Structures are given as structure tokens and as C-alpha cells.
Amino acid sequence: MSDSLPSIEQLNKETDAVFIEAVNTLFETAPPLANRLLAGRPYKSYSDLIDLAEKICLGNDLSEQDKLDVINAHPRIGENKANLSAMSLKEQGYNTRQGTESAEDQQINATLAQLNKDYEQHYGFKFVVFVAGRPRSQIIPLIRERIASDNKAQEMNTGMVDMMRIARDRLKKATGESHL
After folding, report:
1. Is the full-model pTM beyond 0.90?
2. By its UniProt entry, which InterPro entries does this protein fall under (predicted)?
């Protein structure tokens, strides 16, 4: 995944495959969403594209299975670095240089791995959160709180809202365009 995106004018003209690859830079690989965004071309701006994505994800445009496919496209917080995209590595605060993780990082990741498992068993989909530069250690109480809330519909909505926050942040980083 690249940190840069073509101009919106160029994106509107691209082949389906190139369009979807660029959209996946913002949203990870989620075919139900990417295909609907492809059908929505042309866009005046990337912000308009994300606005449509938000409408699709938070509205009634997706089946329950499609919503699961979209939210489960995101990597788990604390995921093994080898399984993360370049953007996710940065967002989750990993040092991208080669080397071993500290004992503290290993413990945090082990705790997050267990909490991710608990969350997914409880709700049936991945925990998605807009990290916004917070250390992974600060996510531990948040995921515990969200498991305890015991509200599946609210959790799906929260995850989708955070996905849009992530996409807007990625857009800002990739293009400087920000209508947050």
C-alpha cells in the first residue's frame, strides 16, 4: 500500500483495478465497499468519496455479511507486524526499522491479541479503533470497556465510524487534503 494517491481527477479515469487499489489505501481491502465506491464514480474530491463510503457503511446499503466483510478487512490492533500494511504499521506506532520488540511491546501485543480474541468471540467481528497516535497500551482499557458495553449494533457502528476517521486521516497524510 502506498502513502500517496493519484489526484481525484486521475482516479476517476483509472481502470477498475487501479481505482480499487487506491481506495484500499484508505479503507483496506473490503470488496463490498470498494465495488460500491467504484460504481459511484466520478468524485469531485476524495472527501466526497469518503463521505459516500460513510453513507454506505452507516446506512442500509450493505447487508450484514457485507458489513462484516468491510469491518473485518481492517487489521487487528497489535497484529504481528508482518501482517500489517505500511499505513497500519505507522498508525499503530510500530518502529518500522528491523529489530526485536521490547519485552513491554511483547506483553502489550499479547494482551491485545487476547482482547482481540475476546472481542471477536463476543461480537463476531474485529475491533476497529482510530488510534490517532496513541500508544497501543492506551487501547487496552478501551477495548475492555467496549467489550463490557455488550451492545453489538453500537459496536458495529463505532467500528464503522472509526474506519471513516482512519480513512480521513490516511487521506490527510497521503494528499494533504483534509475536510475532517
Report:
1. no
2. OHCU_decarboxylase, OHCU_decarboxylase_sf
